């Protein structure tokens, strides 16, 4: 293969202008064109008015497969699952066990407290009733995403757990996806992709139940459709704002250049807009990683895509590790890898990341598949204000309060005085009328 | 006062057509006009390009107050706070204590688990760094909203806790708001309202720091501005989708008609689009509540607004309590009041509500102010898929994993086989290259 390998030149942070610094950490612009927005809105309207027929027509148009029904029966799913190779089944079993164990440990507990005598407050967690799990299609089969969405939905015991994914040319899903879906006990499997699949989950069709929350990654049509349906009055909730994938590695002289390069490449291969950044206080390490990148890149099947992503990435020489840590906290990467002999002192300072990979033997791909953590993570700087997907995202919290007559006698003045301050008289009277009632006299003399 | 009191006629659920049933539970349409959307977008653009100057100009235009600076210094806030009447201070103190106690009890714990030998996974909670608390202005002072947003931000120890609220005619905020702000230890107080205040929090100005998440209720401009800024690339998160306030009461013959009427009125007085629903298996109770409503309404200062809200509300006769409970679960009210002698059997079946008020002596206004629960709740049916505001909303969750060389030796095949299934070679090589390295040989022989 002959390819013009494009690796960014290393830049010294201390010597960089503020413009250069901003450019080094800038993300690819995610412009949603008005045309795309309108196209997605039209697809949603079409699914809203025509239901299954719209979904089947759009699946024929965009996925090139003409189906009789969007449903893949659970019997058929189980049958296809059996065809998965033993190695793939074993890998899914192990990943499932780790993901299940880690998400089970996240199980929330209700809170109950008597805030004052006679005033009882509770916070309760209820599983979302109906969740929709979108699994992207395209060139590859993505059983890992089935596990990342399906396992927490299963632990939460969401009563409807509906999976939708674009069909392969046979009008089915891969054995690996079916095997993972069976492991997670999904309650329904449907065929469809893009904005039309999201619309079907949001609005329901003759075959597909409408859901309360939509989870899962996707292309720009899927992302825009999730945004649009979540903005509708009474629309479903969605998991996270989406963006291209990112990895930031902090490495010192203790790192293994080949390991660092392999991790940077594994992130870069996701797509041409993936972003990878290396921060190191060691010029020798940066040079060695650069060399390893060129060597490893040459032998990768997805070298073209990977090369494009690398071309817009950054290799940054920092003064010391403290500066690298500060830059990472500003950037707030989706994935953060620490390839240092001694990570402990830095971990308390590093919180702005979706997921952190500690030490030389924790490849980023470990978290993508099998350590147990979730791979649905905030990207595009959203690690500063959004959470990594976890079990809690499959629950709602609501509160319950119970006030005894005696409790109201004690708390009443507080409510009355605040309602008066806020000029809400009916609020005030709901208390005063109770306290002045003959029933209150009776009930407090019991 | 002469007013044409408009109370809805009671409807028997079993006799209602499906159209009538849908209408009884339908919510006021929340149409955002294209004009409002464009006006809000223009305001956001103006604040983005002109900063403080834009905010001051728009405050002069919409709030009728010409300010020198949008900042109200913390010294000034403390000085104004002192002017609050003793009764109001005492009420805020008591409400603060209850809200603080209940939100402290919600403190999350980090999770740590060895999912396999040598594979350590952690889920950690980090407070959001910078939060913006929007407090609506208008006719009344709303110290309760300061507490509902400020107390959890204080417990989480968000490092910047910025409050913004429209100025009163003196170019200040009320003593009660200032007193509550001081109690919650907010770090900055600013003057501004509407879309321009939301834009200032989202984008920052010369005076106002940009924040990571915006909390708080507001009118249609505020709501639309929150939606728009949260959709921007790298924009702030927001708390909840907004809608008009709602109360659903389930009452049986054990209820006190005057108490039920008082609660329905306290919800209806919020605004003409507020919605109140009474469900009861007792025709006598519905008739008695109707009578009490007319009697109490006549003496309320906000009777006009309240009357409008009542006109579009529903009084529904159900077959039994089970039917009432099922209707409530379909409607998913923001506030749910159970005025029954025996609530216990029904509570496990009632989870789709923002907050539940149990028994005859738990007025809905108790939760608005002082029981300890939060009054920022999902409305408009969002109680089926969004959470009531709580301490967790002031944190982000992120994960950390550490794999030992031995752990990678055990987990490696799983990652390799899944990466092969997903055709992501660089992901695979990040593992195989480590396992085949001389460094791995050395590190596992230690």
UniProtKB/TrEMBL annotation, chains A, B:
Zn(2+) binds at residues 267, 270, 368, 427. Its EC number is 1.1.1.23. Catalyzes the sequential NAD-dependent oxidations of L-histidinol to L-histidinaldehyde and then to L-histidine. NAD(+) binds at residues 134, 196, 219. This is Histidinol dehydrogenase. Its cofactor is Zn(2+). Belongs to the histidinol dehydrogenase family. Binds 1 zinc ion per subunit. Substrate binds at residues 245, 267, 270, 335, 368, 422, 427. HAMAP family: HisD (MF_01024). The keyword NAD applies. Pathway: Amino-acid biosynthesis; L-histidine biosynthesis; L-histidine from 5-phospho-alpha-D-ribose 1-diphosphate: step 9/9. Transmembrane segments: none annotated. GO terms for cellular component: cytosol. The active site is at residues 334-335. It catalyses: L-histidinol + 2 NAD(+) + H2O = L-histidine + 2 NADH + 3 H(+). Pfam families: Histidinol_dh. Keywords: Amino-acid biosynthesis, Histidine biosynthesis, Metal-binding, NAD, Oxidoreductase, Zinc. GO terms for biological process: L-histidine biosynthetic process. It comes from Aliidiomarina iranensis. One of its GO terms (molecular function) is histidinol dehydrogenase activity.
């Amino acid at each position: 293969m002959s390819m013009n390998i494009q690796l960014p030149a290393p830049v010294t942070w201390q010597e960089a202008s503020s413009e250069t610094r901003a450019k080094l950490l800038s993300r690819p612009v995610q412009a949603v064109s008005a045309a795309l927005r309108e196209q997605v809105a039209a697809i949603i309207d079409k699914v809203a008015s025509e239901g299954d027929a719209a979904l089947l027509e759009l699946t024929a148009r965009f996925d090139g497969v003409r189906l009789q029904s969007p449903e893949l029966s659970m019997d058929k799913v189980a049958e296809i699952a059996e065809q998965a190779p033993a190695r793939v089944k074993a890998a899914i079993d192990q990943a499932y066990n780790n993901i299940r164990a880690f998400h089970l440990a996240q199980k929330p507990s209700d809170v109950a407290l008597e805030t004052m005598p006679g005033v009882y407050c509770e916070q309760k967690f209820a599983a979302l009733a109906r969740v929709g799990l979108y699994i992207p299609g395209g060139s590859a089969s993505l059983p890992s995403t089935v596990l990342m969405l399906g396992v927490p939905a299963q632990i939460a015991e969401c009563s409807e757990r509906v999976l939708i994914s674009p069909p392969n040319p046979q009008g089915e899903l891969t054995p690996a996806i079916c095997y993972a879906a069976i492991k997670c006990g999904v309650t329904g499997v449907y065929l469809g992709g893009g904005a039309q699949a999201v619309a079907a989950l949001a609005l329901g069709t003759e075959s597909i139940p409408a859901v309360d929350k939509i989870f899962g990654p996707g292309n720009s049509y899927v992302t825009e459709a999730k945004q649009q349906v979540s903005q509708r009055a009474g629309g479903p909730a969605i998991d996270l704002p989406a963006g291209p994938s990112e990895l930031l590695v902090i490495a010192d002289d203790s790192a293994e250049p080949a390991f660092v390069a392999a991790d940077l490449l594994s992130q870069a291969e996701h797509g041409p807009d993936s972003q990878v950044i290396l921060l190191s206080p060691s010029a020798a390490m940066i040079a060695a990683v650069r060399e390893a990148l060129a060597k490893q890149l040459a032998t990768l099947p997805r070298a073209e895509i990977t090369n494009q992503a690398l071309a817009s990435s950054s290799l940054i020489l920092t003064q010391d590790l403290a500066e690298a840590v500060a830059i990472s906290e500003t950037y707030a990467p989706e994935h953060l890898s620490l390839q240092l002999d001694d990570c402990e002192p830095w971990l308390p300072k590093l919180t702005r990341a979706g997921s952190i990979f500690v030490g030389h033997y924790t490849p980023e791909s470990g978290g993508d598949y099998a350590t147990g953590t979730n791979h649905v993570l905030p990207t595009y700087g959203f690690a500063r204000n959004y959470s990594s997907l976890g079990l809690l995202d499959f629950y709602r919290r609501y509160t319950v309060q119970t006030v005894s007559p005696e409790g109201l006698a004690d708390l009443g003045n507080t409510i009355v005085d605040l309602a008066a301050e806020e000029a809400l008289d009916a609020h005030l009277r709901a208390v005063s009328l109770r306290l002045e009632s003959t029933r209150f006299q009776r009930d407090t003399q019991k």
